[in-house]
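queue> pop job 88
queue> type: inverse folding (structure -> sequence)
queue> payload:
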């Protein structure tokens, strides 16, 4: 039987990976909706290739610019919407699968809006879970929607503990490749150019997450994300560097047993296992390469190389702190990619900004709804825009 699917963020790297899988299984899936922020030409081509009749363009300016393509869309009977709700409100029954692959905090609202329309939701968006998990989890329960995390580390943890009693877990190790600067001290690469920081040794990823990998911020986010998804104390988690990126999670149990999960460095595997979770007829073509298990070489990361790891000592109790942290990091990484600040300044300014009274006064309070999250994100962005100058001073 053909399964229906909606794909939020189809023009990004994870969206493209998902479409690659769908392209190999066209007889098994029908795409009901694709979304993009700005890439109109790209999503138009995707809609044609996969015979999709509904798309969403989130960016307001680009949404109105789409009229340049209006005749093309109309000719192919493709309807263009501004929100997920508008696109899906006429659906009479739940769609089998939804994948949220929108990068950044902008993915939170579309993810929340999609929950009531799908039976199974796979999320590959750290920021949505870090900043809005209490709202997402509430909607999942309210709509009886099954949830599976799609980031390779969280999918691995989920796979390893789904049949286990969480009280028996002693430690969960999340692995990190170490990125392009594994053996370099921060002081030695403080002025490294973005083109060098983007050269991830194992994964093909977008620019933002590639920089987060280099600074190790992505692992901080993954620990916060895992704490929330699996409802465990932050002390249950530890980060280990594993340069091969073949082992994605290790679970050590109180019984003395340790489980680990390995797979190739591709997001295809978590996505395939999500889409075929109730159907074992899929065969991933790559053969098991046992040599990848030789010399696994696990290392503890050093704070002099990755000072952002000190952030892990925070509590992350669903307050404004997480939202402020994510937004500051987003803005600093974007500034670095635009050559406005140095690589070193991502680290320096992040700690300085987090200690500003302008932000600290919010650390003991929590947003009551998604609109309050959006207001805080806007507040942080405006503060950074006003207060950071070309000399990296605040």
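queue> result:
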């Amino acid at each position: 039987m053909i399964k229906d699917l909606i794909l939020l963020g189809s023009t990004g790297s994870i969206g493209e990976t998902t479409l690659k899988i769908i392209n190999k299984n066209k007889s098994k899936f029908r795409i009901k909706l694709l979304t993009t922020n700005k890439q109109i030409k790209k999503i138009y081509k995707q809609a044609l290739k996969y015979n999709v009749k509904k798309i969403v363009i989130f960016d307001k300016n680009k949404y109105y610019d789409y009229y340049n393509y209006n005749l093309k869309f109309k000719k192919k009977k493709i309807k263009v919407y501004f929100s997920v709700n508008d696109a899906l409100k006429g659906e009479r029954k739940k769609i089998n699968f939804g994948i949220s692959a929108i990068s950044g905090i902008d993915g939170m609202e579309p993810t929340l809006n999609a929950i009531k329309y799908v039976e199974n939701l796979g999320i590959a968006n750290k920021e949505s879970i870090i900043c809005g998990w209490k709202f997402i989890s509430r909607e999942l329960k309210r709509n009886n929607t099954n949830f599976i995390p799609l980031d390779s580390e969280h999918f691995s943890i989920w796979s390893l503990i789904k049949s286990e009693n969480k009280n028996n877990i002693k430690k969960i190790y999340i692995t990190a490749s170490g990125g392009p600067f594994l053996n370099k001290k921060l002081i030695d690469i403080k002025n490294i150019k973005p083109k060098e920081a983007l050269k991830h040794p194992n994964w093909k990823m977008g620019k933002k997450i590639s920089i987060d990998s280099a600074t190790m911020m992505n692992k901080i986010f993954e620990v916060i994300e895992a704490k929330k998804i699996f409802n465990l104390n932050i002390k249950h988690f530890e980060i280990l560097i594993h340069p091969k990126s073949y082992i994605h999670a290790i679970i050590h149990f109180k019984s003395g047993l340790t489980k680990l999960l390995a797979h190739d460095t591709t997001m295809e595997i978590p996505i395939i296992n999500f889409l075929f979770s109730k159907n074992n007829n899929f065969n991933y073509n790559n053969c098991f390469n046992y040599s990848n298990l030789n010399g696994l070489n696990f290392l503890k990361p050093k704070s002099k190389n990755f000072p952002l790891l000190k952030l892990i000592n925070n509590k992350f109790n669903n307050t404004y702190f997480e939202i402020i942290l994510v937004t500051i990091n987003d803005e600093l990484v974007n500034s670095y990619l635009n050559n406005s600040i140095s690589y070193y300044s991502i680290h320096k300014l992040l700690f300085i900004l987090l200690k500003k009274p302008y932000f600290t006064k919010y650390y003991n309070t929590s947003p009551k709804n998604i609109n309050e999250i959006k207001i805080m994100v806007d507040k942080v962005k405006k503060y950074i825009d006003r207060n950071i100058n070309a000399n990296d001073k605040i």
